[in-house]
# Entry
Amino acid sequence: MSITENVKQLIAELPQDVKLVAAAKTRTPDEIAEAVAAGIGIIGENYVQEAEPAYQKIGNRVAWHFIGHLQKNKVKKAVTLFDMIETVDSVEIAAEIAKRCAQIVKTMPVLIEINSGREAQKAGVYPENAEQLISAIATMKNIRVTGLMTMGPLTMQAEELRPCFRETKVLFDRVKKLALPDVEMRYLSMGMTDSYKIALEEGANMVRIGSKIFGQRA
Ligand SMILES: *Cc1c(COP(=O)(O)O)cnc(C)c1O
# Structure
């Protein structure tokens, strides 16, 4: 099936209130433009350098989400390109985002990345440390927590990821209930090509899908 057909099928299949992020790593600007023409409204990029040519072609008719691991020296550029950063996992990176956004008079919506698989040396904050991080970010200007994101261990099969998604949803609901000032718990970004159906069953309202749109990566 073509990118166009894949996008149309996914949009028809997903519940109305679920945001679809097209995960575009390794795809060409032309491939991404085809997905946009077919109805994609949010592009997810893992690398700032890779996003630039696609952004140049497509521009801000769509929203751009950063979904990779953000390095401090890339934040300055990232805040100019992206409309949301889904992978904030430390006070340090949040402070850098806030600082760089202040310089361009912008407030960046971010998601907190949860290391729901509790994998050492992997991105994301452990679930038990999330609330403290969110409270710290809430005191910063030019950055706003708008939800949570998780991946789960890449080696796991979809069904094995269910407990990771479930724990992240429990955390999402708990933080939402706290109604912390300047925190807006709106988005729960979980699920990729092989796992999005399970993520939706566990309460995701944002899914990040690559292969099912663009085909298998080389
Ligand atoms: C690549 C990627 C995806 C999409 O993966 P697929 O299996 O191709 O759907 C989603 N989220 C992140 C963070 C990714 O890096």
